[in-house]
Design brief:
This protein is mainly alpha-helical and 134 residues long. It has helices spanning 27-40, 43-48, 52-71, 77-90, 95-113, 118-132; strands at 16-19, 22-25.
Length: 134
């Protein structure tokens, strides 16, 4: 990547999503994923600069939102992740990092939401596998 990206703009990241009749706050989950992500990929902070964490949280909020909406029958996680894969690929973002982010999101959901998120975590892991096959 020759220049660093700007801060996220356009459609703001969702802040909550429905699950089983309650609202799940996405920002704390995305921040936990970001902590783990940058623990594994610290070079992304240098590569993308100060906006790296903002983008990580922004995109992770969307992925978590899609996963929870998918569980409620309101979205298609596979389709949305395929779209994001195309966008990030066109920008030269390493798709292995996206796949790992989806796995980390699955781990965080399973830990924080326990049994209510087991199937959702499985769908996120399947989406990660699809990204790796791209």
């Amino acid at each position: 990547m020759s220049r660093r990206p700007a801060r996220p703009s356009g459609m703001p990241a969702p802040t909550s999503a429905p699950l089983g009749g309650r609202r799940i706050a996405l920002l704390p989950l995305a921040e936990a994923v970001a902590d783990r992500y940058f623990g594994e990929f610290p070079d992304d902070l240098e590569r993308y600069g100060e906006v790296a964490r903002a983008w990580e949280i922004h995109d992770t909020c969307h992925c978590l939102h899609w996963a929870l909406l998918d569980a409620e029958g309101l979205a298609d996680l596979e389709r949305e992740v395929a779209w994001l894969t195309g966008v990030l690929s066109s920008r030269g973002f390493p798709l292995e990092h996206l796949a790992r982010n989806l796995e980390l999101a699955a781990d965080v959901l399973a830990e924080c939401l326990a049994e209510s998120a087991v199937a959702i975590a499985g769908h996120l892991r399947a989406a990660a596998a699809d990204v790796r096959m791209t």
